[in-house]
Amino acid sequence: MTQFVRNAWYVAAWSTEIDEELRRFTLLNEHVVMFRKSDGSIAALEDRCPHRLLPLSKGKRIGDTVQCGYHGLTFDGTTGMCTRVPGQTNLPKSAYVLSYPIEERHGIVWIWMGDPDKADRTKVFDMPEFTAPGWKVHHGDALHLQSNYLNVAENLVDPAHISFVHPTTLGSSASENVPVHVQTEGEAIVAWRWIRDAEPVGFFKGFGGFTGNVDRWHYYYLYTPSTAVIDFGSAPVEMQIGEDERDRGVRIFALHFVTPVTKDYTIDRWMHIRNSALDDPTAEETMDRMFRIAFAEDKEILEAVQKEEERPAKRRPIRIAIDKGPLVYRKRINELLELERTEDLASHPSPAFVYHD
After folding, report:
1. Are 32 and 111 in contact (CB under 8 A)?
2. CA atoms of 150 and 5, how far apart (whole Å)
3. Domain count, the chain
4. Which has more confidence, 149 or 345?
5. Pick the residue with more confidence: 260 or 352?
6. Per-residue pLDDT reduced to its tens digit, 99-145
7. Are 155 and 261 part of one and the same domain?
8. Is the keyword Metal-binding assigned to this protein (predicted)?
9. Domain range holding 60?
10. Residue 45: is its pLDDT beyond 80?
11. pTM to 2 decimals?
12. Cα separation of 74 and 77, whole Å?
């Protein structure tokens, strides 16, 4: 059975997906009911009444509380505590639903599904380009995949697949044998490569308007548990840009917020931030159209892999040089899961023990 890292921030929805109505979302195999309270903030509660287990999303709002549609038990939208049991005055201590911490910024709704006391809001993913001048932010779609989230996330730290899965959109045969660099020491796992003096790929022919050869790059950043940033772009060969001069070219950040729904169902909400065509009203539509083509290619591959993983295995799969990033990612996930399975009682050791390391 797939285990999920719970003490982490996940994207629950775009801000536009949540209004005053009770709406059910499923994350980490748990159902959550969310709605906007009267002050505009978002309530996120366990979507199951503790009495007869009817989903609260099938009840109704009464102000900033939710009334169960079966017997009328009412729960506070902030704390999840029961505020009314029709027919009796006492409120049992066990009459509550879980309430999940929420952080909303940049049109993105983040949720913490683990221990609420560990929900550090400074750890919510952010980047300067969200608000920096000279950049345009655009929300894309929610890609639904019948695939385990680990496979989806691994695909987002894998520049090598671009040449073969996206030969007419994001890649080409020119990059097939170009070495991939991998760095695994920092907060994010990073994989990158440059393709110098090559024909522009389909994406930049359609969006960047390049006609001659370009220098192009792909930098893949994967943050545990499942947020990915792909920094890619192109610049005319004549500019001879260095690796730290990517802002001089047409540069795009494609952001992927991968949310595990169940063991074999994942939602990838994607968006982009760009430094060109800032005032072009057609740019976003053009880019979205090309992204949808590319991500449909990923979807076909990942769902086919999922089906094969569910079949009996005749032998262990092999691993090759390009798998360094995904292997480290799996290791990090396992380490986070192990931390959640155990309780550290040695963080303040007894004076009877003296540590020298």
Report:
1. yes
2. 11
3. 2
4. 149
5. 260
6. 999 999 999 999 999 999 999 999 999 999 999 999 999 999 999 99
7. yes
8. yes
9. 9-118
10. yes
11. 0.92
12. 9
Report the C-alpha gap between 218 and 207 in whole angstroms: 16
Same domain for 107 and 219? no
Same domain as 103, residue 133: no
Is the Cβ–Cβ distance between 203 and 210 less than 8 Å? no
CB of 23 within 8 A of CB of 16?
Answer: no
pLDDT of residue 350: 60
Would 80 be classed as within a structural domain?
A: yes
Please check whether residues 211 and 228 belong to one and the same domain.
yes
Given a contact cutoff of 8 angstroms between Cβ atoms, the answer to whether 76 and 67 are in contact is: no
Q: pLDDT-based confidence at 347, cuts 50/70/90?
A: low
The separation between CA 6 and the C-alpha centre of its own chain, rounded to angstroms, equals 14
- What CATH number should be reported for the domain holding residue 162? 3.90.380.10
Mean pLDDT confidence for 170-188: 85
Residue in the block written with tokens 């990033």: 325
Taking the C-alpha atoms of residue 202 and residue 232, their distance in angstroms, rounded to an integer, is 13
**161 and 271 part of one domain:** yes
Give a yes or no: residue 174 inside a domain. Answer: yes
Q: Is there a single domain that holds both residue 221 and residue 317?
A: yes
Tokens standing for 251? 């540069």
Specify whether 304 is located in the same domain as 246: yes
Question: Do both 237 and 143 map to the same domain?
Answer: yes
Q: What is the pLDDT of residues 49-72, one digit of tens each?
A: 999 999 999 999 999 999 999 999
CA 136, CA 147: separation in Å to the nearest integer? 31
